[in-house]
Specification:
It contains four helices and six strands. The protein has about 190 residues and is α+β, with helices and mostly antiparallel strands. The strands form three sheets. The protein has a two-stranded antiparallel sheet with strand order 1-2. It has a two-stranded antiparallel ribbon with strand order 3-4. Strands 5-6 form a two-stranded antiparallel sheet. A hairpin with a 5-residue loop joins strand 1 and strand 2. The longest helix has 16 residues. The radius of gyration is 24 Å and the shape is elongated. It starts with a helix and ends with a strand.
Length: about 190
């Protein structure tokens, strides 16, 4: 038992000695998804699942027209979108860049492509972002110590109404019955 504890302590200290001490802001700003000390992993994501005919947004949103930044219910286009995502305080231009509709923007004003939307989501949903980076939330495929591919938040969640609809739980499984064995004893 003592030997086990000594080995566990050595392993834990070795792991801590190699940990990166870079602030989370630096890792986040670099767009990196830190996996292990010294990792050079780049975030590899498939394209976002746009609805047919909606991207690039600039095909309809003329960048030369003045943008109405007033929060309102849309009446000319996108009426099918019902915002159920922080509805009291949020609206379209909190995430979509008003000057370049083919980009999103962070709270700092930095423009980001839709392929980096995880950075935008992570600003408000930090705990989920942390879990996503670690491969606990969402889906990540690839090699344990090599290239990985992440799914974006929008591959599972509707960005305008991210909460999943409730589902009815299935009934409990039927427990197995005990049967008699040919020798006369109880068998499972």
């Amino acid at each position: 038992m003592l030997l086990f504890l000594a080995v566990a302590l050595v392993v834990a200290l070795a792991a801590l000695a190699g940990c990166s001490r870079a602030p989370a802001e630096e890792l986040f700003a670099a767009g990196g998804v830190p996996e292990a000390p010294g990792s050079t992993l780049q975030v590899n994501v498939p394209p976002p699942p746009f609805s047919d005919g909606v991207f690039p947004c600039s095909s309809c949103h003329d960048p030369e027209l003045k943008v109405n930044t007033k929060q309102r219910k849309l009446k000319v286009a996108h009426q099918e979108i019902e915002l159920k995502h922080g509805t009291e305080a949020r609206w379209c231009l909190d995430c979509h860049d008003p000057a370049d509709r083919d980009q999103l923007h962070l709270a700092s004003g930095e423009k980001i492509p839709f392929e980096e939307s995880y950075r935008l989501c992570g600003q408000c949903h930090g705990e989920k972002f942390r879990d996503w980076r670690a491969g606990v939330h969402g889906r990540r495929t690839g090699n344990w110590d090599g290239e990985k591919q992440y799914l974006l938040c929008v591959h599972c969640h509707n960005s305008h109404a991210p909460r999943f609809a409730p589902i009815k739980p299935e009934s409990a499984p039927v427990p197995p019955r005990r049967t008699e064995s040919p020798a006369g004893g109880a068998e499972r």
